[in-house]
């Protein structure tokens, strides 16, 4: 029996904060749904060849939600790709998401169901959807093209409501007051416009499924976390809550009001599912994965040398860097290039960037890379790429966990590691990683190192590019100490907020007991849960399982 469902994704909405703000009365509409239905956290893990590991990467998690499949089945682990024939990486910000050729979105249900899918992150317009699809009107760097079905629908929405002011423009520039003013005003406008579009689309037809996503919550977390939460290291230096209020909370309150408006015009008997595929906390990975790990692996390969962020491990921890001299994170990191001569270091810190375009220590300067619009030129991990062919192992660019590639003979073009040496090298690197500590708290930084291959020359195209995945402890830091490679840092913080593996699911509807608790679940289960609430068939190939199956079955039996 078909049942109507309204599904709304809150991109990167941190469950701990949502729970706190609901309990404090700041999110009355979400609180009302929780009281009327079920709530629980989602905890994400994926299957590598070396075992299970936590997973917090945005784009694959949205694809897991949409397809019901884990990455080992889709082969979509990351938006960044590596070519072993050239030692080059790519990251197409428009077409770098999953292509949905092998596995379609769960809502591609054919003629039997009417579906409206508006602005769901990391999805594409796909065949098999009876209704409307719109992608790329807004969202936080959504890795898919702007498109619609019918084709003219997106252009008509832009003509009627305007372009989204945040789309592909938010970058977490915490040190810039003008950026703060822009992002807070733009998010407010984006939420208001999205709400109107959703309300108008919802009333266009009698939809069996209306599904949408609020990308603005992702922007709020990435850009404003340091102004909201005391666990961010920059909070004591940057928060202005006494004068500005909590800007991150203000944004979530507007989203809560938007949900109230959308549900006020939804069919009375429709089930409602609100979800976040992952959460957000103080940023770990921009420094640890994008800059500090590549430097650790550089020093591992070239003992006694340092390229970026040299520090004296025998001295007390230097103070946090709380102002941005060069007004850009890449420039801030590049000014940390190692220079033992103090006068030359001072010149490098303050001179005009046009004089800093040459390579140093074998690293590529970001300035000519950015001038040439090289993909990922802003990310420090890429600056080491000119040396990868000479290294036994190197850190690949990544947006979440740390990624390490072994330069293997018979696989990588100029591989220097024999397959027979692979296991020993992986073990050696793993031991070095487990000895990394936070230079401030002296706590261990690495939670888990997991292998992605059972054999070094396994050429399954669905395996991830890295050989080792580094899962970090929940410790934001700008300073890393190692008994093996010395001190790295301090380094200027980049975006304030970073991804966490835990999301949430909130649902109400007929057969769902009020104030009930969801005990388990992952992002990959969301599609199956929605299909089950709709009374639709769940494909046999799904890895995801319906989280509310018994409740939905009870609902069907009572009718």
Description:
The protein is 31% helix and 19% strand. The strands form six sheets. A nine-stranded mixed β-sheet has the order 9-8-7-10-1-11-22-2-23, sandwiched between helices. A four-stranded antiparallel β-sheet has the order 13-20-19-16, with helices on one face. The longest helix has 26 residues, at 177-202. The termini are close together. It has two domains: 5-282 and 498-557, Alkaline Phosphatase, subunit A, CATH 3.40.720.10; 285-494, no CATH class. It has 18 helices and 23 strands. With 559 residues, it is an alpha+beta fold.
Keywords summarizing the entry:
559 residues; nine-stranded mixed sheet; 18 helices; 2 domains; Alkaline Phosphatase, subunit A; four-stranded antiparallel sheet; alpha+beta
Number of distinct helices: 18
Supply Rg.
Answer: 24 Å
CATH superfamily of the largest domain: Alkaline Phosphatase, subunit A
Portion in beta strands = 15-25%
CATH uppermost class of the largest domain: Alpha Beta
- Domains, number: 2
Structural class of the helix and strand makeup?
alpha+beta
Shape: globular
- What is the percent of helical residues? 25-40%
Could you name the CATH topology of the largest domain?
Alkaline Phosphatase, subunit A
Low-pLDDT ranges? 552-559
Seen as an oligomer or otherwise, the chain set is single chain
Main beta-sheet strand count, sense and barrel state: 9 strands, mixed
N-C termini distance: 9 Å
Kindly report the spatial arrangement of strands forming the biggest sheet.
9-8-7-10-1-11-22-2-23
Number of strands: 23
CATH architecture classification name of the largest domain:
3-Layer(aba) Sandwich
Average pLDDT, all residues: 93
């Amino acid at each position: 029996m078909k049942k109507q469902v309204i599904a709304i994704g809150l991109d990167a909405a941190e469950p701990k904060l949502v729970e706190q703000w609901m309990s404090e009365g700041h999110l009355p509409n979400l609180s009302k749904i929780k009281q009327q239905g079920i709530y629980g956290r989602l905890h994400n893990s994926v299957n590598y060849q070396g075992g299970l590991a936590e997973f917090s990467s945005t784009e694959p998690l949205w694809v897991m939600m949409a397809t019901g499949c884990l990455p080992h089945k889709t082969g979509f682990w990351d938006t960044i790709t590596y070519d072993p024939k050239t030692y080059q990486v790519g990251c197409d910000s428009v077409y770098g998401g999953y292509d949905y050729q092998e596995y379609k979105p769960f809502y591609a249900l054919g003629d039997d169901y009417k579906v409206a899918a508006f602005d769901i992150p990391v999805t594409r317009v796909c065949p098999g959807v009876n209704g409307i699809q719109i992608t790329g009107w807004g969202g936080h760097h959504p890795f898919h093209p702007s498109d619609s079905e019918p084709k003219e629908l997106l252009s008509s929405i832009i003509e009627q409501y305007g372009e989204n002011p945040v789309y592909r423009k938010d970058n977490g520039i915490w040190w810039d007051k003008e950026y703060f003013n822009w992002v807070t005003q733009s998010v407010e406008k984006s939420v208001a416009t999205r709400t109107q579009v959703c309300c108008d689309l919802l009333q266009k037809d009698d939809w069996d499924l209306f599904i949408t996503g609020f990308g603005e919550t992702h922007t709020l977390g990435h850009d404003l976390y340091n102004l909201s939460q005391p666990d961010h290291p920059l909070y004591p230096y940057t928060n202005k809550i006494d004068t500005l209020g909590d800007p991150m909370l203000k944004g979530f309150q507007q989203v809560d009001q938007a949900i109230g408006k959308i549900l006020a015009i939804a069919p009375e008997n429709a089930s409602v599912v609100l979800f976040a595929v992952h959460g957000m906390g103080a940023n770990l990975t921009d420094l640890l994965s994008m800059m500090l790990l590549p430097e650790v692996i550089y020093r591992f390969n070239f003992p006694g040398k340092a390229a970026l962020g040299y520090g004296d491990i025998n001295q007390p921890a230097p103070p946090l860097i709380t102002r941005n001299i060069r007004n850009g994170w890449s420039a801030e990191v590049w000014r940390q290039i190692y220079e033992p001569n103090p006068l030359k270091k001072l010149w490098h810190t303050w001179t005009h960037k046009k004089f800093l375009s040459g390579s140093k220590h074998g690293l590529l300067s970001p300035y000519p890379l950015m001038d040439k619009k090289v993909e990922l030129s802003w990310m420090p991990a890429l600056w080491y790429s000119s040396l990868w062919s000479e290294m036994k192992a190197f850190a690949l660019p990544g947006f979440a966990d740390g990624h390490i590639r072994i330069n293997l003979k018979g696989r990588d073009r100029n591989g220097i590691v024999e397959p027979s040496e692979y296991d020993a090298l992986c073990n050696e690197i793993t031991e070095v990683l487990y000895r990394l500590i936070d230079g401030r708290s002296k706590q261990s930084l690495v939670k888990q190192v997991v292998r992605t291959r059972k054999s070094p020359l396994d050429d399954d195209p669905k395996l991830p590019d890295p050989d080792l995945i580094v899962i970090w402890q929940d410790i934001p830091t700008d300073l890393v100490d190692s008994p093996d490679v010395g001190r790295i840092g301090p380094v200027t913080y980049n975006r304030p907020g970073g991804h966490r593996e835990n999301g949430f699911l909130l649902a109400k509807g007929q057969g769902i007991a009020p104030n009930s608790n969801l005990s388990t679940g992952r992002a990959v289960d969301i599609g199956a849960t929605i299909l089950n609430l709709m009374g639709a068939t769940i494909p046999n190939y799904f890895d995801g399982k319906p989280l509310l199956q018994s409740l939905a079955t009870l609902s069907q039996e009572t009718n």
